[in-house]
Amino acid sequence: MATKVKLRQKSISKGRKSLYLDFYPPIPHPETGEPTRREFLGLYLFEKPKTPFDKQHNVETLKIGQSIRQKRENILNRPEIYDRYEKEQLRLEELDKSCFSLIVYNVRIYELVSIFLFCQDG
Questions:
Q1: Gap between the Cα atoms of 90 and 87, Å rounded
Q2: In the chain, N or C terminus with fewer CB closer than 10 Å?
């Protein structure tokens, strides 16, 4: 199941908003291992921007937040990006350069039939 990541805002003190990532389903926290749904980014917006500088700051900060959200979503869903053939090729690259595979396709329907792995001893 793909993990959905959304960029959300939370009002805080002094007329600011804090940006955080919301994950569904929850992901394991990197330090504790417990499931968590939020990751605060340490990025802040002005709740009511008064000057053009404040407005520009909000626009740039939102772009940075969206970029972080997109990277995080790609990292979490990386195993689901590849099809069966690409996963097998990545696995073979990790194994060893002395191994090679024979991949058999059903040419009519372009379906992967089987994969044979040959490795040299020694």
A1: 5
A2: C
Question: Starting at the edge strand that comes first in sequence, how are the strands of the sheet with 16-28 ordered?
Answer: 4-12, 16-28, 35-46
DSSP per residue, 55-106:
HHHHHHHHHHHHHHHHHHHHHHTGGGTS-HHHHHHHHHHHH-TTEEEEEEEE
Judge contact between 119 and 96, C-beta under 8 A. Answer: yes
pTM of the full structure: 0.64
CB of 26 closer than 8 Å to CB of 37: yes
**Model confidence over 12-65: pLDDT tens digits?**
999 999 999 999 999 888 888 899 999 999 999 999 999 999 999 999 999 999
Kindly report the backbone phi and psi dihedral angles of residue 27, in degrees, each rounded to the nearest multiple of 5, phi listed first.
-110, 160
Give the rounded distance of the alpha carbon of 23 from its chain centre. 11
List residues bridging with 4 in a β-sheet. 24
